[in-house]
Fold:
Amino acid sequence: MEVNKIYNEDCLVGLKKIPDNSIDLVLIDPPYDICTTGGKKGNDKLSHDIMKLEKELIDNNLVSSFDIRVLDEIVRVMKDINIYIWCNARQIPMYIKYFNLELQCKLEVVVWGKTNPIPLFSNKYMNDKEYCLYFRKDGYCKPQNYEDAKSIYISKANVEDKKKYQHPTIKPLELIRRLIRNSSKENDLVLDCFLGSGTTAVACILENRKYIGFEINKKYFDTANKRILETKKDGD
Ligand SMILES: C[S@@+](CC[C@H](N)C(=O)[O-])C[C@H]1O[C@@H](n2cnc3c(N)ncnc32)[C@H](O)[C@@H]1O
Structure:
């Protein structure tokens, strides 16, 4: 399989073409397992915004989790277990069971804290953070400076990038670059099986890493390719 290329296909199919023990770092952001409200909301602006976001997530198949067999394939292709996985609180037990209990990996948690969450807190805490679990066996984690070593990343919710790249769950490029710097070396090969708008591939280009990415949705795949081309052009 060619590297520094992204593929518009189901990652479960694409992963089969990657040889064993060939990937240095995996960074994935699979669809979250989300409970939607089923549209039962009021007529105010906030309810309207939430329903719009939920509709976008449902229309683009971003509310239900993924085929767990992907994890077996990912483990097969990694040289050592060295993987970041974005998830919500409901998915944490599943990953702990798979990577800690079954594969005896070490766990660290990186948190993206948002300074401007949607102000919804009736009977619950606000949705102002996202979790990124880092599992490794012998994997590599060597932050080079104080900022990169922080496990909590604080920023605004990524409204500008969401609009610009038309992806509802885009992650902050700066944070993805940090994770890649910390857990891989220059020219290492990084895999993202759920590429979305291409943030991981762009971060790899900027950090001089090789990449392979899969994205099943043609619209997002085209966006990712456009971002990759723009990044390469800016670097020339
Ligand atoms: C949470 S988003 C990733 C967003 C990405 N981190 C970014 O910054 O743009 C998950 C992506 O995985 C894609 N996806 C879902 N199932 C997939 C599969 N089986 N194979 C490849 N891509 C898949 C979805 O279309 C979606 O764009």
